[in-house]
Amino acid sequence: MALLDQFGRTIDTKKLTREESAPSMMGVRTIMSGHPSRSLTPQRIAAILIEAEEGDATRYFELAEDMEEKDLHYLGVLGTRKRAVAQLEITIEAASDDATDVKIADEVREFLRRDTLQGELFDILDAIGKGVSCSEIVWETSAKQWRPAHIKWREPKFFQFDPYDGETLRLRDGIGVVDLTPYKYITHVAKAKSGLPIRGGLARAVSWVWLFKNFSLKNWVAFGEIFGQPYRVGKYHPSATVDDKAALLRAVASIGSDAAAIVPESMMIEFIEAEKSGSIDVYDRFSRFLDEQVSKGVLGQTLTTEVTQGGGNRALGQVHANVAQDIRDSDSQQLAATLNRDLVRPYVDLNHGPQKRYPVLIIGRPDELTLPQKLDYTEKFVRQGLKVESSQVRDRLGWTEPEGDAELLGASPGRTAPPPGARGEISEQSKRAAFDRIMRAVHAVHAVRSTNAVADVDPDTDAIDAAVAAALEDEGWQPTMEPMVAPLRELLAEVESLGELRERLAELVGNMNLEELTAQWGVGDAMFVTRLAGALGISLEEVDADV
Fold first, then answer.
1. Exposed / middle / buried, residue 35 (Cβ in 10 Å: 0-12, 13-18, 19+)
2. What pLDDT is recorded for position 452?
3. Mean pLDDT, residues 266-284
4. Is 469 exposed, middle or buried (0-12, 13-18, 19+ CB in 10 A)?
5. Per-residue pLDDT tens for 350-388?
6. What is the pTM of this model?
7. Contact at 8 Å (CB) between 203 and 64?
């Protein structure tokens, strides 16, 4: 039976181990660029964007590359956005607790532990700027298992959108364009806005700002060359020849750069001081304004890249941080969806065949927690009687299912400590009652062992047995348990079904009065240990350190 991808296309496994879209010196897939940013004008940039809409995005992709290379601000904010996602934690959640699903999730988690993964994700996120990115997967089977040997970023200009739907990406080839081989590519589309993928990249919107900033910088550089220098005016005699005039012009120009020149005696050079009027920082302010627009478009805010006059405040900084986090979360969700479709599913299908359910790759979380927080919340969740799949806990913590012969860590034997706060506040009266109870038990033990006067006491009775007997004498357990039993008795009289009892029982347990019980079995235990240690010759100071 042939293996089909998610679109129903037959998988040709023979093509998966060979490079298919590598560049070549001759043909349509060349690494040489036309650099359309040279001598760029509004008319040319409009023509480039229209070409991309009509199906030929070659010059648009080349322009987007030039923009990143020539504008450090755009390069910086775009790189910040991509790295914010590429460095997030990646978790794999098994489809269920079924042994097969857990095993598949562990395999996916293992092959994602590759040193090159962060760089590969960064390349895939190239789509944020250009609207689309395409990375070729070169598979290998040396370990008798299909695994990605390389995930290679390819030039976007090697590909072309189908002219009929504007969404299907196809490969440029010597014969024209061909369909992409299934399970061979990771094609990621990142949209800054709704619409065709080629119009969804940030480079399209930033290109106009980049053009105006480019003009401003050129004028600024020219202005900087002559700023503060006086005008030089050369005067020549009416009888001067063409050669004389040319010599005078060279002399005037040389004074600006060399601060020295020679002219014939019949000629004269005058220096006229330049009058400075209006603002002289117009180029600076205009360039800063354009940079702020780029920051807003790429990062959604400006506070992390520009310091406004007068500074900012903490509330404003928090708002900007929240905006940046929203954009990061959106980018990570889009990337995770792409990887689940183009990487996780192909890996599972090639190694295990089509599945009803697949493991899920998740990048980052809105509620990112530290490992101690995750463990603490899980413990509290289970302690309340709620249930959780063990595979989900393992997946979120990044721990794999242990093998049969693996050395396992487990909880130490002994009494589990009660949850924090369960003991509550204990009154002095309760402490005194517990102390008296334990003292009577200890005296009973000494009496039995020293005089053997009590005939109905078992000779093997120890201090703990005596303490239990003293605590239960005269039905003393009833007042202790009454604060717990009474609310339960009232609840049983109110509920009408077992389901209602189950729902309200957790709340009831949380509100029970455990003062008497904790006093007797909490402080009582501690006092008993203390008194018994004293009877055995252990110093009270040593006991106090442990009680």
1. middle
2. 46
3. 64
4. middle
5. 999 999 999 999 998 655 666 677 778 777 878 877 777
6. 0.61
7. yes
